[in-house]
Amino acid sequence: MARGLSLGMGTLGFFFAIFLMPLTVAVAISFVAPAIAALLARPLLGERVRPLTWVAVIVAFAGVLVVLRPNVMTLGWPAFLPLLTALGMSLLIISNRASAGQGSALSMQFFVAAVAACLLIVAAILGNASGIAMLHIGQPDWTVIARCFVVAGTGTIGHWMVYVGTTRAGASTIAPATYVQLLASTILGWLLFDNRPDLVTLAGAAVIISAGLLMWWDARRRVNAIRDTDVVDSAV
């Protein structure tokens, strides 16, 4: 249930964010999720936070501030919505760790989607009852329904592939591949919505990605050190 609630919270934050700001900005800020997960891993999972992880977290949040600066002045508090997405995704990462091995990839995906769907349905009903024009459900056009099917299909496949990749190759191995999402969102946002990222957004995104790669490098270094130690012990 925790994984589904986390996914639902992250989804709500992201859809509100891309409604109010360029796609690239929302995606760039959401990439701070691994840093938040590293911080929450200590109180929730009892994992030790290494000094280099603290450095990466500080760097990541510095990048977020760089990206947020112009958007805070323009949008106000809604500019922080991508951070809600990042929090939801970080809790999903932690929940994945806690529930590893409890079921197959398909069964885990089904239960996560079921819980998230319930949360999003309740949110849609409350939004429709709020009287806010942008939250009114109404009768969607067939093109909207078609796009929803595309989002649902690609999202399901993406989450399934991440889960399978994590269980087979390890999170530290596949982590760099997730940053392709930022490149893809930048290109698609430019082509489909004419959202051209400015230099400030690109600079902040580069800082956030650098922090994520620093955490990945540190994790890989620790894994290799443990593997080398095991090899030496087995040889002795």
Care to describe what's here?
By secondary structure, the chain is mostly helical. It is built from ten helices and no strands. The protein has one domain (2-235). It has helices at residues 2-20, 23-30, 33-45, 51-75, 81-98, 105-129, 142-169, 171-174, 180-193, 199-235. It is globular.
Short description:
81% of the residues lie in helices and 0% in strands.
Topology, pairings included?
Layout: H1 2-20, H2 23-30, H3 33-45, H4 51-75, H5 81-98, H6 105-129, H7 142-169, H8 171-174, H9 180-193, H10 199-235
Helix pairs in contact: 1-5, 1-6, 2-5, 2-9, 2-10, 3-4, 3-5, 4-10, 6-7
Key attributes of the depicted protein:
81% helix, 236 residues
Backbone structural class? mainly alpha
Which sequence of SSEs, written as H and E, runs from N to C?
HHHHHHHHHH
Classify the helix fraction into a percent range: over 70%
First-last Cα distance: 46 Å
The number of E-state strands comes to 0
Taking Cα atoms only, what radius of gyration do you get, to the nearest Å?
Answer: 19 Å
- Given as residue ranges, the uncertain stretches (5+ residues, pLDDT < 50) are none
Mean pLDDT, as a whole number? 80
β-sheet strand percentage? under 5%
